[in-house]
Amino acid sequence: MGQFIELKPADGASIPAYVAQPAGKPRGGVVVLQEIFGVNTHIREVTDGYAAAGYLAVAPSNFHRVKPGVELGYQPDDMKAGMALKAAVEDLGMNPAGAGVLQDIQAAIQYAAQAGKVGVVGYCWGGLLTWRTACLLQGVSAAVPYYGGGVTTEDEIARTPRCPVLAHFGEQDHWIPLDGVEAFKRAHPDVEVHIYAANHGFNCDHRGSYNADAARFARERTLAFFAKHVG
Q1: What 3-state DSSP class applies to 14?
Q2: pLDDT at 186 over 90
Q3: How many domains does the chain have?
Q4: Contact, 66 vs 86, CB < 8 A?
Q5: First-residue to last-residue Cα distance in the chain
Q6: Rounded to 5 degrees, what are φ and ψ at 69?
Q7: How far apart are CA 149 and CA 25, in angstroms?
Q8: Catalytic, out of 42, 48, 168, 173
Q9: Which domain range does residue 193 map to?
Q10: Which is the catalytic residue, given 124, 163, 168, 204?
């Protein structure tokens, strides 16, 4: 069971983050980046899961600069609200030195670094933020985007990661066409890419697109990747 703390980004803002501690000495740190539904029950459970695997796990509230306390479900109205909040955060910009969400993620990385090396994992919008984190931020030893919406656009493919990256996609994901995934693979042969017989959101057992087999395989690969690069 974790608790919320306050992160302090470089601009002096106060950003809530859910933190889960491992039972013993941490193997390292893991930053968990939310979907468009906030640091909700599912993201807190995911964060707890990385703590159970031995990591100091931190999930920053990436909507806080535009709306505090967001915790959405997975119904159509929740999707609409989450998309609007995502757009508002994106409008703040993606300059690591700016007042947008990357500054908050950097603060989460710095907090997690008290446990040693840091890995970053994110889902949906958080997958996109994980890719940007791998390419733009400091102090990351490994990054794992799950079905990152937007990762396969030309602008994102043009980025260069600064750390090892493992990427998970679903072949039935209508948000991320497979031709985009193939273009991403060609542009980044050093990125380990896995494609599952699953839909968008396959890791989330709170939504209809959950796929237990894909979620299990992806988690096993993610933990092995973090064990190799983080600790």
Answers
A1: coil
A2: yes
A3: 1
A4: no
A5: 22
A6: 70, 30
A7: 34
A8: 173
A9: 3-229
A10: 124
Quote the pLDDT of residue 97. Answer: 76
Residue that the structure tokens 């040693």 belong to: 116
- According to DSSP, residue 165 is labeled B
Residue 132 has pLDDT above 90, yes or no: yes
**CATH number where 129 lies:** 3.40.50.1820
Q: What is the Cα–Cα distance from 119 to 205, expressed in whole angstroms?
A: 23
Report residue 134 as tokens.
Answer: 């791998």
Extended beta strands in the chain, E state: 3-7, 15-20, 28-33, 55-60, 118-123, 142-146, 166-170, 192-196
> Mean pLDDT across the stretch 210-218?
96
pLDDT value of residue 4: 97
Over residues 5-28, mean pLDDT: 96
Per annotation, catalytic residue among 168, 200, 204, 229: 200
The pLDDT of residue 96: 84
pTM of the model: 0.97
Place of tokens 């993610």: 222
Q: How confident is the model at residue 86 (pLDDT cuts 50, 70, 90)?
A: very high
Q: Is 200 tagged catalytic?
A: yes
Task: Enter the tokens of residue 50.
Answer: 């990385």
Find, among 220, 199, 111, 109, the residue nearest to 163 by Cα. Answer: 109
Report the candidate in 87, 86, 133, 82 with the shortest Cα–Cα distance to residue 110. Answer: 133
To the query of whether residue 173 is one of the catalytic residues in this protein, the response is yes
